[in-house]
Amino acid sequence: MRISRADDRWRLLGFEKVVHECLERLAFQQGYRVCGVCEVLGVSETHLRSLFLRDVGLAPKDWMRWERMVVARRMLLWGADVMVVAERLGFSHPNSFRREFREVHGVPPHLFLETRIPEF
């Protein structure tokens, strides 16, 4: 098995066939939980970790943390409220989301929205 990036998404490939078409979607569906992704794929956490380290260069937990913040940024730019984003992305509390967003992006969500360059 291997993980590859094609057409702007991550895919898990097995013996000449696609095992899962979109890891980003799978991660979202499983609440960004490594154990949930492993269960769906039928692999151990150790095996998934070795695949990610080899093919992506990150541990699955780190990749999912980053991916969740990419989705959060997109949702905020589309106009979703911070509370809604936090809930949809599985955070136990909006403050947990704000803290995570600030750690990854360097600014809290409200400042991210205030300082972004408008698209024309």
Shape: elongated
Main β-sheet description: 3 strands, antiparallel
Please identify the structural class as seen in this structure: alpha+beta
> Which runs of at least 5 residues are low in confidence (pLDDT < 50)?
none
Global Rg: 16 Å
Mean pLDDT: 89
Work out the helix count.
7
The SSE order reads EEEHHHHHHH
Number of domains: 2
Distance between the termini: 42 Å
Total strand segments: 3
The proportion of residues forming helix, as a percent range, comes to 55-70%
Share in β-strands? 5-15%
Report strand order across the widest sheet. 1-2-3
Keywords:
alpha+beta, Arc Repressor Mutant, subunit A, 2 domains, 120 residues, three-stranded antiparallel sheet, 58% helix
Question: How is this structure best described in words?
Answer:
This protein is α+β, with helices and mostly antiparallel strands and 120 residues long. The chain has two domains: 2-57, no CATH class; 63-115, Orthogonal Bundle (Arc Repressor Mutant, subunit A), CATH 1.10.10. The chain has helices at 23-29, 34-41, 45-55, 60-77, 82-88, 94-105, 109-115; strands at 2-6, 9-14, 17-20. A three-stranded antiparallel sheet has the order 1-2-3. Helix 5 (82-88) packs across helix 6. It is elongated and about 45 Å long. The protein starts with a strand and ends in a 5-residue tail after the last helix.
